[in-house]
C-alpha cells in the first residue's frame, strides 16, 4: 500500500521548481496508513517558504483523488514535523541532476559552484538571495549568464 | 504553562514585527537584488513567527489561532521589544537593526536548540540555519557601510547613536524568565547578553564607528508599553482581518 502511495506522490512536485518531486526534495519523512486514513509527514524546507502550503494541498488533492481508484483510503492528513530540520543533503542525486539540467546549480558542500550553462567555474556572487529564499544569485564570468544556486542548508 | 506562553509570545512578536517592518521595503529597496534579499529575509522571519505563534496558540488550548494572535490583538497586548518596531529609516538603520537582531537570534536559537522543551528546540534548530545566513549578510553590510564613503559612514554612525539604547531590552531578566532558565526551557539572558556584546563590539572595533556612551536604556515593550510607531504599523498590518474578520484567500 505504501508503494502505491509513493507512486502517486511521485507526481507531486515543488511548485517553485517543477523538476523536483517532493521525494527528490527530501521533504517526505513518513507515510503511514490505517483503516480509513493516509498520514503523510513532511518537513518544511524554509520556515516561511510559501511553496510548503501548496505542497500540502497538492498531496491531499492528488492522494484523495487517485488513491480512490487503487483502493486507498480517501481521507488524507498531512502532518508537519520540524525536527530534525530539513537539510539540502536530503535532496536526492536524481534531484540534483534535474536541478542542473533545469539551469539551477545544486547545493555543493565542497563549495564548488559552476555555471549550469557552460560548466565554467569562473563565477561571481551577485546577491545572497535569488528568486526564492533557498537560492542565491550568481553570474558566470565566461558566458555572462546569470544563474540561481540552490544554497546549502 | 503561562510562563512558557509569555516567553514564546515575546519571541513570536519580536519576529512578527521585525518581519513586517522588513516587508515594508518590498518594491522600494535600493536596488533589485537588495529588494529580493530583504523580502526573502522577511519571509524567513515571518515563517519563524508563524511557528512560534502557532505554538503559543497551542499552549492556550487553541482557544485562539496564530492568526488571531497576529491580527486581533491590540498594541498593548504585543510583547515585542521596542527595537523591532522602530521605523526602517534609511538603509543603514534597517541593516543595523537587522544586524543587532541577527546576532541575537543566532545566539538565542543556538541555546534554544538544546531546550528541554522539545517544541521550542525544534523551532530553534530549524530557524538557526536561516538566521545564520541572515547574519552573514547583515554584517557584510555593516562593514561595507562603515568602511565606505563619508556619507555611508556618517549615516551608519547616526543610526548607531539612535539604535544602541534599544538592544538592552533583548536581555532583560524577570523572575518568570529566570525560572524558565532554571528549568532548561529558556535561554539564559545574561549569557546571551555577554555573547551579543562580545560579538558586536568585536565587529565595531574593526571599524571607525563609535558606540554611544550614555546610560539610557529603552524599555517597556515586553510588558506592552510601546513606542508610537507600533500602533501605526498594526493599523496597516491588521486592517484586512479587522475589517473582514476571518477573511481567507
Task: Characterize this entry briefly.
The complex is a heterodimer of chains A (153) and B (249). By secondary structure, chain A is of the alpha/beta class.
Characterize the structure shown:
The complex is a heterodimer of chains A (153) and B (249). Chain A has helices at 2-9, 22-25, 51-66, 93-102, and strands at residues 28-34, 37-42, 75-80, 104-105, 123-127, 135-140, 146-150. Chain A has 2 domains: 2-86, Fe-S cluster assembly (FSCA) (GMP Synthetase, Chain A, domain 3), CATH 3.30.300.130; 92-150, no CATH class. Chain A has 4 helices and 7 strands. With 249 residues, chain B is mostly helical. Chain B has a single domain, classed as Ferritin, core subunit, four-helix bundle (Ferritin). Chain B is built from 10 helices and no strands. Chain B has helices at 2-23, 32-59, 66-71, 82-85, 91-112, 118-146, 150-163, 175-182, 189-205, 228-243. The longest helix of chain B has 29 residues, at 118-146. Chain B is globular. The two termini of chain B are 33 Å apart. Chains A and B meet through loops of A and helix 2 and helix 6 of B.
Greatest chain-chain contact: A-B, 23 and 28 residues
CATH-defined topology of the largest domain in chain A: GMP Synthetase, Chain A, domain 3
Radius of gyration of chain A: 17 Å
Secondary structural class of chain B: mainly alpha
Tally the helices of chain A: what do you get?
4
CATH topology-level fold name of chain B: Ferritin
Strand/helix succession of chain B: HHHHHHHHHH
**Stretches with pLDDT under 50, minimum 5 residues of chain B:** none
Give the overall form of chain A. Answer: elongated
The geometry of chain B reads as: globular
CATH architecture grouping of the largest domain in chain A: 2-Layer Sandwich
Q: Percent of residues of chain B in helical segments?
A: 55-70%
> How many separate domains make up the residues of chain B?
1
| Text of the CATH class of chain B | Mainly Alpha
Q: Could you say which structural class the secondary elements and strand pairing of chain A correspond to?
A: alpha/beta
Query: Low-confidence parts of chain A, pLDDT < 50 over ≥5 residues?
Result: none
| Rg on CA atoms of chain B, Å | 18 Å
Tally the helices of chain B.
10
